[in-house]
Structure formats: structure tokens, C-alpha cells
């Protein structure tokens, strides 16, 4: 099965860029996702990337995929205090049947 | 448009009892996914239902079970509750893939 690993904590200053990293083990992952979980809330799908893409940009969010190293990153430009949350990386291998989530990275934005 | 709704928001049960958690998907979504988020751990996949059928299950014992009703709402049942079942249980719905899946707010289950 898939293993997805993330660092547990990241602290940045408001206005700086945040980069959250993720590594996965299954090279057959079809989709790779980034979710955001604010305190007391469910998960919000932020963005996703297909395994045949290297990069995807969506407003302040940039996803980079390095298939060779099985490394995925999420860059948030001009980080705001409202971006403080836990960010989960997830991968789906063998189709859409099952998605494996990482343990989440807690992003703290310092005003 | 209403999002994914889960009930109850909080549930306290005694060890050995049974818990029933409910999920109403977004209108038009036929797939429902259940996840367990234990403290300090990531999300663990529990079950996937689509069109009323169980399509896949995660690495959980058989006392975790569920079903999907004709209106696509779903129920998760946990029998013979153990203390380590205490967690946030999240439900997500989609129209068939996890691209565009939406999560509910979760049910916080506490086993004492």
C-alpha cells in the first residue's frame, strides 16, 4: 500500500511564502491531493495534480511534483493568518478506490 | 447547496457499546467515504460506498461496518467499542472520484 509522509510543523511569517513537503511511496499514484483542515472543521480540497503533470498553479497555490523522487510540495505565496491550518497530502494508487493521507503538516502563520 | 452533513457532532459511549454515525452526501453524489482521524495520527481510510455497494475497505476489524441507503446517505457502525476507537470520524462524498470530494465536519466519538 501507499505510505505518505509529511513534516509535522511549519512556522512562517505573514507575507512570506510557505512550502509544505510530502513524500509518497507508490509510484503508480494517479492523483495527488492537498487538503486543508481548519480547527474543528472537516477537510477542504485545496488542489490536486495528476501524476503526468510536473506543476500546477492555482492563484496563490503552486503544486510541484517530482515523480523521480516521489516528492510533492505545496507552495503558498504571500501567506496570510487565515492560512493557519493543518495541510494534508494524499495520494491515490490503483485508481480512485482508496486514498492514503499523510499525517498532516500544521502551518502556523506569525503576524 | 447543502454540503456533506454528519450527525451527531459529538458522541460519548461506554466501552463495549455500539455507535452509529450518519452521513448525508451532497445532492447528486453517489460515493461516500469514511475516514478515522485519531489524535496524533493522519486520516485512516475506513470504507468506500458507491451506488449502495461497499467498494473497498481499509485495514480495520470487522466490527467497523456500514451501509449506504438508496438515497446515498450512509451509516457507519462500530460494535464492541474500545477506548482506542475514540477519534474524529470524517465522511466525504463525491460523484465517483476523490477529485472534488467534499468532507463533512465530522463526528467526534469518545469512548470512556
Protein described:
The complex is a heterodimer of chains A (111) and B (112). Chain A has 111 residues and is mainly β. Chain A contains no helices and 11 strands. Chain A has strands at 4-6, 9-13, 18-24, 29-37, 43-50, 55-58, 61-66, 71-76, 85-93, 99-101, 105-110. In chain A, a hairpin with a 2-residue loop joins strand 6 and strand 7 (61-66). The termini of chain A are far apart. Chain B has strands at residues 5-7, 10-13, 19-24, 31-37, 43-50, 53-57, 64-68, 74-78, 87-94, 102-103, 107-111. In chain B, the strands form 2 sheets. In chain B, strands 2, 4, 5, 6, 9, 10 and 11 form a 7-stranded mixed β-sheet that branches. Chain B has 112 residues and is mainly beta. Chain B starts with a strand and ends with a strand. In chain B, strand 4 and strand 5 form a beta hairpin. Chain A binds chain B through residues 4, 31, 33, 35, 40-45, 48, 88, 90, 92, 96-104, and chain B through 4, 33, 35, 41-45, 48, 55-56, 58, 90, 92, 96-106.
Please summarize what this structure is.
Chain A is mainly beta.
Features:
heterodimer; A: 111 residues; mainly beta; 6-stranded mixed β-sheet; 5-stranded antiparallel β-sheet; B: 112 residues; 4-stranded antiparallel β-sheet; 11 strands; 0% helix
* Residue-averaged pLDDT of chain B: 91
Average pLDDT number of chain A: 88
List low-pLDDT spans of chain B: none
Structural class of chain A: mainly beta
Number of strands of chain B: 11
Share of β-strand residues of chain B: over 45%
* Sequence of secondary-structure elements of chain B: EEEEEEEEEEE
Largest sheet of chain A: 6 strands, mixed
The portion of residues assigned to helices of chain B is under 10%
Question: What is the quaternary state of this protein?
Answer: heterodimer
Coarse structural class of chain B: mainly beta
Instruction: From the alpha carbons, calculate the radius of gyration of chain A and give it in angstroms.
Output: 13 Å
Helix content of chain A: under 10%
Along the chain, the helix and strand elements of chain A come as EEEEEEEEEEE
Low-confidence stretches of chain A: none
> How many H/I helical runs of chain A?
0
Computed Rg of chain B? 13 Å
